[in-house]
Amino acid sequence: MDMGIAGRTALVCAASKGLGRGCAEALAAEGVNLVIVARTAATLEATAADIRKNTGVEVKAVACDITTAEGRAAAIAACPQPDILVNNAGGPPSGDFRQFTHEDWIRALEANMLTPIELMRATIDGMIGRNFGRIVNITSSAVKAPIDVLGLSNGARSGLTGFVAGLARKVAPQGVTINNLLPGMFDTDRIVTTIEAQAKAHDISIEESRKRRMAAIPVGRFGTSDEFGRACAFLCSTHAGYITGQNWLIDGGAYPGTF
Ligand code: NAD
């Protein structure tokens, strides 16, 4: 299916690895030019080179910490008028909430709530002016079903979700859609940290923790960044103009509810 977005420009945050990279690759495969962001220049440049080679689109790489004001300014300077914005950053650390300090909470809010809001603030009026915009926020299944050891994530991402629910309706008449993608368990570096934290919390081995997590997924495996990226590309397509303000869970059927 032609997604109808060839020649558009996307700003994809936290895109050197994992789910962000999956989104960048899937958009590039549709002919979307990219500005990709991550902290480590060498890894990011290697990803940019791979995407250019595989797809032929333009890829600019901006090495910065997107959770800082300077990082966001650098990203926006490189991509002031994106048609597509994919918000992403590393997830907050796990732990018992009694150990989380005020500073830990501020860091989680900065990374997983306020940074996406700031980037939307910087880019949405351009999208409205062009009568086309697609914003996808990578959040977590923890927004729908909290994960015990990830209190910082459960809290900060829910704040973003509430805000987006309101904003999506406000900008819908101007051709801008905003949706959240909620990953369940995907085979990226991040999953290793989550599995280790749960092993520690439940006093079991890492292998046992991994097995238990997989056993709880009806599809019987972790998801791939490619599958995640393809869903993102569809949400950014011209065909998805009637989908906005939604929270798409991509979890291999792990969430047990009817809705
Ligand atoms: P990952 O560790 O594989 O990749 C993270 C990417 O983000 C890397 O490119 C890294 O360089 C970049 N990054 C991290 N912090 C950054 C920052 N401050 N500024 C710029 N770039 C930064 O992680 P992932 O699995 O792709 O996860 C992406 C997001 O999805 C995270 O917030 C994670 O918590 C969330 N999530 C992942 C899963 C999963 O199963 N993988 C499940 C639920 C939620």
At a glance:
By secondary structure, the protein is of the alpha/beta class. Helix content is 47%, strand content 14%. 42% of the residues are buried.
Structural key phrases:
259 residues; single chain; binds nicotinamide-adenine-dinucleotide; 7-stranded parallel β-sheet
Structure description:
The radius of gyration is 18 Å and the shape is globular. The mean pLDDT is 97. It has 259 residues and is an alpha/beta fold. The chain contains eight helices and seven strands; from the N terminus they run E-H-E-H-E-H-E-H-E-H-E-H-H-H-E. Helices cover 47% and strands 14% of the residues. The longest helix has 29 residues. Helix 1 crosses helix 8, helix 4 packs parallel to helix 5 and helix 6 packs across helix 7. It binds nicotinamide-adenine-dinucleotide. Nicotinamide-adenine-dinucleotide (NAD) binds next to helix 1, strand 2 and helix 6.
